[in-house]
Every structure is written in structure tokens, then in C-alpha cells.
Design a protein that fits this description.
By secondary structure, the chain is an alpha/beta fold. It has one domain: Uracil-DNA glycosylase-like domain (Uracil-DNA Glycosylase, subunit E, 3-Layer(aba) Sandwich), CATH 3.40.470.10. 51% of the residues lie in helices and 15% in strands. A hairpin with a 2-residue loop joins strand 5 and strand 6. It is globular, with a radius of gyration of 16 Å. The termini are far apart.
Length: 196
């Protein structure tokens, strides 16, 4: 079975397991993810917003446009990476996902990562960072790589601010762009280290 089929199975499992029924009830659809299934980099946000809920694709609103701009500045294309969220349904009025909602979706996110097998996971915002780096404060660790083992998978986590936060806070914008532009170098260093 190929990766696409396995991800379809995972989507079916989320629907069959009735994950977060109160979120599912008010959302238009489940937003699984989008991009290259053989990507070396997976970006993880927190939850879909209004535009994502309508289109079924992650990061297609204002945050998505900003993400695409940063990808281009870093010499990457959206088609090269895979993008998803911790929570797969839009929370009402774009509120933050609740801890129980993130907890409910986490096993499915981990299975998603096991299927794609990226070299690097870039967390966008504190909600996706918290699971991989518990107790970390994004203001202290943003842009710095951390090696973590989740289940049987060893991952290089790079926590970044969420593009939405940078859209609302001009001073974060420069920080996020600078961190983002550092991602290819971190990946190159990691590749060189693993070949030694």
C-alpha cells in the first residue's frame, strides 16, 4: 500500500473513530493535509481556519499566503513540503484548540508523520510545539533545532512562530522570516551529520 492510500486509511479512521464530534459537527470538513508525501519537511500548524475549512486544504488564507512567501524566500516550494495541523477540524470562531482536542488528534498526527517520514518537522506556533517540546516557551526556543524521539520515530523539531501571529505583530514578522530562512541550513547540517 502506498503513502496516499495509507493517509486515506488514516482519514477514514479519524471519521470512523468519531474524533472530537463537537468540532466535527460545526466544521464543513476534515482538513488532513496537503503537499508532497515524500517531503523531507513537514510543517504543522494548530487547526484549520475559515478558508481552510471551506477548501479542505491547510494554510490557504492570509497565514498560508505568508507561509508561501517565506517558502519562496527560503528556496522552497509548497509542492516540496507537506503541511498539516494538529487538530483537523476548524474550532468555532477560530478559537484556540483545547488541550483535550489536541490530545484526541495527536495519535493521528503521529501516524501521519510515520507515513510521510520527514527528516524535519517545523512546528508553527506553540500549540503544535507543546507536544514535541513540553514545557518549552516559544519565545526562548524559536528557530532552534531539537532532536526528539516520539514512539519509535526520531525527529528533528524546529519550532517557529505561527504565521498568523506575525501578521498581527510586526516585530514577530522579521523574527519569523529570519528563523524560516535558517531552516534549509539546519536541514543541510543535519544531512551532513547523518552521513558522517
Amino acid at each position: 500500500m502506498d503513502k496516499r492510500q495509507r493517509l486515506e486509511q488514516l482519514k477514514t479512521a479519524i471519521l470512523n473513530d468519531n474524533v472530537c464530534p463537537e468540532l466535527a459537527e460545526q466544521a464543513t470538513q476534515l482538513v488532513m493535509g496537503d503537499g508532497n508525501l515524500d517531503a523531507d519537511i513537514v510543517f504543522i500548524g494548530e487547526a484549520p481556519g475559515k478558508k481552510e475549512d471551506e477548501s479542505g486544504l491547510p494554510f490557504v488564507g492570509a497565514s498560508g499566503k505568508f507561509l508561501n512567501e517565506m517558502l519562496a524566500q527560503a528556496g522552497l516550494m509548497r509542492a516540496d513540503v507537506y503541511i498539516t495541523n494538529v487538530v483537523k477540524y476548524r474550532p468555532p470562531n477560530n478559537r484556540d484548540p483545547k488541550p483535550a482536542e489536541k490530545q484526541a488528534f495527536m495519535p493521528y498526527l503521529l501516524r501521519q508523520l510515520e507515513i510521510i517520514r520527514p527528516q524535519v518537522v517545523v512546528t508553527l506556533g506553540r500549540h503544535s510545539m507543546e507536544y514535541f517540546l513540553p514545557g518549552a516557551v516559544i519565545g526562548d526556543v524559536h528557530g532552534q533545532p531539537h532532536r526528539v524521539t516520539v514512539g519509535e520515530v526520531s525527529l528533528l523539531i524546529i519550532p517557529l512562530y505561527h504565521p498568523a501571529a506575525a501578521l498581527y505583530n510586526g516585530s514577530l514578522r522579521a523574527t519569523l522570516i529570519e528563523d524560516f530562512l535558517g531552516v534549509p541550513a539546519i536541514i543541510a547540517n543535519e544531512a551532513a551529520r547523518s552521513q558522517r
